[in-house]
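Homework-ish question, so no full write-ups if that breaks the rules, but can someone show me the predicted structure for this set?
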Amino acid sequence: MSERLAKKVLLIGWDAADWKVIHPLLDKGQMPALEKLINGGVMGNLATLDPPMSPMLWTSIATGMTADKHGILGFVEPEPNSAGIRPVSVTSRKVKAIWNILTQKGFKTHTVGWWPSHPAEPINGICVSNEFAAAKGPINSEWPLPKGTIYPETFSETLSQLRIHPEEITHAHILPFLPLAATIDQTQDKGIQVISRILSECSSYHAAATWIMENNDWDFMAVYFDAVDHFCHSFMKFHPPQQNGIPDAEFEKYKDVINGAYRFHDMMLERLMQLAGDDTTIILLSDHGFYSDHMRPQKLPSYPAAPALEHSPYGIICMNGTHIKKDEHIYGASLLDITPTILTIFGLPVGNDMDGKALVSAFDKEISPEIIPSWENVPGESGMHPESMRENTFETQAGLDQLIELGYIEAPSDNTQQLQKSVISESRFYLARVFMHSRKYNEALSILEDLFEKDKDKTRYGLRLATCYQLLNRVEDCRKTIDILRTANKELPQLDLLEGTLLLGENRPRKALEFLHKAEQSVSHLPNLHLQLGSVFLQMHNWKDAERAFNSALLIDQDNAQAHYGLAICFLKQDKYEEAIEEALNATGLLYNFPPAHYTLGEALAKADAYEQAAQAFEVTIKFSPGIKKAHQWLAKIYEEHLNNPDKAAIHKKFIKENIKGTITIVTGLPRSGTSMMMQMLNFGGVEILTDGVRENDINNPKGYYEYEKVKRLHIDNKWLNEAEGKCVKIVAPLLQFLPTNFHYKIIFMHRDMNEVLRSQQIMLGKEKDVKNNTFPLMLSEAFKKQLEKANTWIKSMPELSVIHINHHDVINNPIEEAENISSFLSLDLDITAMTSAVDKELHRNKSQKVL
Amino acid sequence: MENKKNQYVRDFKKQEVPFDIPVEGSLGLLALGAVGIIAWKKKKLETNKGTTSGRFEKK
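A: Not a homework solution, just the prediction itself:
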């Protein structure tokens, strides 16, 4: 066991808390407890997961694992007895939560209200489940605790007495939220009832938590409040500034509710901090944020869990306690990091199967957490429910469906059955989104294909499926899915955005622009759209329009790190180093784990002769992404030439030599598909060509072949490829498969109509008779097609390879556009005019006339 | 009983000045957690002679 860094840990969850609401309150001194916590500790953004649904997220916080592993997949789940659906329960959780691990290690552990935690788990302490506080009837009716709410049951009576019924809430509680409460007609306006319910429930959980802390020993205490989220879903629309469509009278009544909610939470926090004492590390966090400005959705669509669209991608985190740094920011935290961090505080190892990491940057000393393969296989009593109670309700449902089909069990009513089916489909959809967020695209794909196949009306399923295909580079399948969606929803702007993204990925910025502009006309408020537009303009080296697009994205969301990064590139390319530095700093400040932004910051600093700071930026770049060759090259240069540190320079040179593969550009295709023309274009554009000039110009290729003799023996000898590093070489498609894996390849794949290719080849072979008669061996055409298929299969199987497919016909007809596409693909500032001069339309036309 | 209630309040405020528990309650009492709620519920019982209702009504 490693060193224990704190005596106790108090974990406080404020669902949906957001810095954007908190900061103005802190500035006005209206959240003094939180201010104290922040000043004495660290604070930062906490990145959420997708989908941002609270039961899934809070379970990820408590387990350090994504939902595909922990098994909580939404708000509801099928009833195991097939009678209906129920709120998601803790028995569906497949892995240990932090309190189970701590129970197993003998720590005194209590949890209050965690979502989901019903039925209460038999942990080494008290567990108050998330069904503790909700009142089911009027105040004078019976209000029993649901079975399984408290563990151990002996505490049930005491704790149940601490609950507050909504009808106990008085004007004294309401007026601080609603100064104009007396003017509200409660028969028409349910605002007061909603506030009463939320306030009574969170006060009940708070009372239970404080009673446990005062009357029991504890090492770990976790308490969860959903009230900020509930207040926000009901009243954020009234939060200042007043939104369009909100009547003045409504605004005046409800404008103080959100601030009131946060201030009340601060009051509760003060009490919890007092009870925790100085020897406790306190972690306060939220699972996601909540849009509070112009990003608030004006209208929510009518599908399940649509309110999650109001959630913003960053929650909050503060840590305060022994060995926690004081008054500092932490960066790059994710809610998956909480459990590994708590384990580290208790000196326990982190499970290698956890998806997060310990937030070591929060500690004031060097910490190297111990790692074990998994906590799941560690034997001992963990306080989880027995196996017989834990079940995958979705699998149970599938088993029951089969029994119903076989006639062993009576089928539920049509409505119930429909509801269950809908819940199962939605949960599978959420699972697919979890996989996509974890970049497990193939796992997501199989679910999405099945869902969309069964339910083509669900545009959400189709859009995710198309996006998944795009991310897997399955362009044809993506386009097919887009077509299906277009047939049903002709005006869906997301499809234009997707098509634009596809074309951008294919290095066709001009065509991408057409679709993105079309999408912009329909929905101009999507920041992602402007980011894509900015990327297109960057690819086209149109820095001014790129700048405008990124600024548009910032008008929608001023905290968009990608947009600040885009601006930094625009300024850097225009030699405006100070502006570039400022924007790169904005980007890294918002999203610290953002290596390209650190790299751009380093480049701008280096060009502004601030070498020491530039070296720091490049060091951060390679800390996050060790394989960025350019960052190592910059570091080697800066240490050697400016900071007089040859030892460090040597380290980076050695790293590049030993760990980073060189890049070779390859022009390929079938013979006579335009490969020589492309080589000439690249040569004219400024790309260094590997050629020996052995094969001389002739009538078939009057401008030269640009070939290299050794290529013909690639299948026997590939040692010469070292000579091709950083250069471009022509290799016919059938030989691609013999390329070794120790280089990165950028492949320009030329395509041409097969008949034209065959005609050209026959002419070259002196078989003009065949051409005149238009008779080519059928087998030849089929063989070439197979060779192309084989080459494409090989390309898809290579992980470290990028490819652009260029049509010979397009080059002849649109040489400027294709030259720009190639320049963008190679990330080089090629001479476009010189490249286009290599395209001889006349030559091509004559050749066509000859063969016809 | 009164002394015990006031002791809770003194513990929280870390000062020796007790204050009256308002029968209509307060956000401060709710934020105090268990001790605040216990004190408030007792005050209501004493004042309302067993009636726990404190429903918000128009003033």
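Now go work out the reasoning yourself. Hint: Residues 1-13, 52-59 of chain B have pLDDT under 50 and may be disordered.
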